[in-house]
Sequence to fold (334 residues):
Amino acid sequence: MSRSPEPSRQSRTSPRVAKKPNVTMTGFEWSLLIGLSLLWGGSFFFVGVAVSGLPPFSIVFLRVAIAALILHVVVRAFGPGMPKGGAVWLAFFGMGFLNNAIPFSLLVWGQTQIASGLASILNATTPLFGVVVAHFLTDDEPMRANRVAGVVIGFAGVAVMLAPELTGEMAGEVSGALLAQLACLGAALSYAFASVFGRRFKRMGVSPIATATGQVTASSILLLPLALLVDRPWELGMPSMSVWLSVLALASVSTALAYIAYFRLLETAGAVNLLLVTLLVPVGAILLGWLLLAERLSPEHGIGMALIALGLAAIDGRPTRWLKGRLFRSEKAG
Fold:
């Protein structure tokens, strides 16, 4: 007599009751948020070191491949296991393409031409693109007045940063710095599409950590032939120890560990609070670039960053709610 198949690890695991995210973050959640901003801010520093000895596709492939190995160990040890359906893995490849392969490659190439701090500022436009993409591709995230204002203010900051390249002495030709900045904006746009595409995993019943593991696994498979055909690693010289250490830190700290922290914070603090990390990432990246890579940003970059931060604050809505609350309390007291 044949035995009935043993239930999967996922089916044996008792379902968790979803907790409602906190509106006001605890001290631990603030610490986790700041830590996550440093992990992601550090990625720009690590890439800044790695591009001195490795070409872009090789860096990106090593980043996702090492992160995939680490996350598979974590999922096997602590998670419910990886799904095996063809539809889920097809979705993983779509997510890996939009959320890893395209943006990581564009950002790494961009940092061959511009400072890591500037790349991080341009990457902070992701929520601005996200508002626009979600408005057209979803039914439940329309463009409200505060979001329109935030997008306009934020992209005004982008215009300020691009203005020197568009109107300067090289206005008659396309400079490498301008292309690099446009590449970083393209990465932010790809992240925005990924945020909408990734909503399907919750409907499919895939856990967040399995989604992270699946997407870096899929992007590793996508990037391997590119790294081999374009970079031809067998023809490259041996990178320095600092380059190898930067790649290892980029994969383990700024990718695998950052994903674990991200999904932990998403579960308890919610997506709205998590938006604050976008404001903090450039701070860490700029400080590391200034202290360790001797990078300097021009005044227009500072102005652009301030406008992007103001736009993100308008989208988030928290400053407006805080001001209204203060005015209401003042009127009530009076």
Q: What stands out?
A: The first helix runs from residue 9 to 12.
